[in-house]
Amino acid sequence: MKKKSDLRRNFVFAASLACALSAGCGHSQAPAHQAIPVRVSPVGTLEDSGGLRYSANIDAFTEVSLAFKSGGYVDRIMEQKGADGRTRILQVGDRVRQGEILAHVRESEYSDKANSAKAQVDQAQANYEKAKLDFDRATNLFKTDSYTKVQYDAAKAAFDSSAAAVESARANWQQANTALSDCSLASPLTGWVLSRNIEVGTLAGTGTPAFVLADTHLVKAVFGVPDTRVSSIKLGAPQTITTTSMKDEFHGRITSVSPSADPKSRVFSVEVTIPNSDDRLKPGMIATLTLGAGNQEPLTAVVPLSAVVRSTKHADGFSVFVVADQGGKSIARERSVEIGDTRGNLISVTKGLKPGEPVVVTGGTLVKDGDEVMVIP
Predict the structure, then answer these.
(1) Does any domain span residue 370?
(2) Are residues 44 and 302 in contact, defined by beta-carbon separation less than 8 angstroms?
(3) Distance CA 373, CA 360 (A)
(4) 13: which strand partners?
(5) Same domain assignment for residues 275 and 313
(6) 256 with 239, same domain?
(7) Which positions ≥6 away from 318 have C-beta within 8 Å?
(8) Greatest CA separation found in the chain?
(9) Is the same domain home to 143 and 127?
């Protein structure tokens, strides 16, 4: 009996030891709470005198779509030497001068019509000369009572009809000559080819677009402003722009302000005309400019746009997460803020923050008030 009791005691001890060495006798240990990785940035300030920045699109000062007035098969397109030295037909990006013939349609049928119209003019002129002689003779005979009034009136009517026929024939001839000259498509300006929509052999109908040309000796920076700012914009005011591709400043003047807002965007279109004799500014470039410098109060605090999130405390409100040290841990605290104007990718905070406070700029949508965070570079 004593032996059985010792075996039982040893079994209980072994079971207890195994339980202690295992993960809580079948109960798993709860994992430690992990900090959420975020990036932070201190609340900044803008020390400049204000002004609102706008994004503008660079457009050509003049853009023209060329179309054929006389239809037909395209038999010639202007040729130029390419960068490789080989001659090729006109391409997008080539420069053309005013008056150059860019393309031509087959003119044989228009030439035939012009020749036929010229023959009709000659015939009408011959009829006119004969009618004039008959009328002169009838006038002399009528004066000597050798012609009756009826005969005189008939000669005069024939003369007047022949004169009208000459005018009509000349008009038809002029029209035929105009159609013949319209077989050639000439450039109305000195500029650049933006697009070419024809090839040799294309059947071009009347009004078929062939080229789009742009005159860029001047360019326009076009941008939109809200109704709260449009009244402060004055025609002729100097304006400086910069582009994202070039750091140089370009100077121009405000030359146009739309009298009505766009029905969709509700902004007024404004144009700044800029000299561009060196062709550094290209249509389609994005530019930035500042309006109203010196008219706006300095911003006391700014944060990146990514730092602002929807508030969980106030409906339709905004918040940021401020990182504070609590017991050696970094804790995110939601703080309600009031926001103002934007400056590029920055937004002003008019209430709720102080310059220098660390705010979450990446990961703000993953944390909530009181969460522990891990600041990463």
Answers:
(1) yes
(2) yes
(3) 10
(4) none
(5) no
(6) yes
(7) 308, 309, 310, 311, 336, 337, 338, 339
(8) 179
(9) yes
pLDDT digits 0-9 by tens, 320-350? 999 999 988 999 999 999 888 776 678 888 8
Query: Which residues are within 8 A (CB) of 30 and not within 5 positions of it... i.e. 6 or more apart?
Result: none
Q: Is residue 282 part of a domain?
A: yes
Q: Is the pLDDT of residue 11 over 50?
A: no
What's this model's pTM, rounded to 2 decimal places? 0.55
Domain boundary among 244, 270, 291: 291
At 270, give phi and psi (nearest 5°).
-125, 140
Check residue 132 and give its pLDDT: 92
Q: Note the pLDDT tens digit of each residue in 125-176.
A: 999 999 999 999 999 998 888 888 999 899 999 999 999 999 999 999 999 9
Cα torsion for 362, 366, 367, 371, to the nearest 10°?
A: -110
* Last residue within a domain, chosen from 261, 291, 321: 291
β pairing state of 346-351 and 358-362 = unpaired
Kindly tell me if the per-residue pLDDT of 26 is higher than 50. no
- As given in the structure block, the two tokens for residue 353 are 């923050």
8 A C-beta contact, residue 99 and residue 187: yes
What is the distance between the alpha carbons of residues 216 and 360, in angstroms, rounded to a whole number? Answer: 46
Query: Cα(76)–Cα(125) distance, rounded to whole angstroms?
Result: 37
CATH number for the domain spanning 224: value is 2.40.30.170
For 203-237, give the DSSP string: EEPTT-EEEEEEEEEEEEEEEEE-HHHHTT--TT-
Distances in whole angstroms, Cα of residue 224 to Cα of each of 74, 236, 261? 42, 17, 9
How many CA within 13 A on the CB side of residue 343? 24
Q: What's residue 19's pLDDT?
A: 39
Domain membership of residue 277 as a residue range: 52-56+213-291
Our count of domains for the chain comes to 3
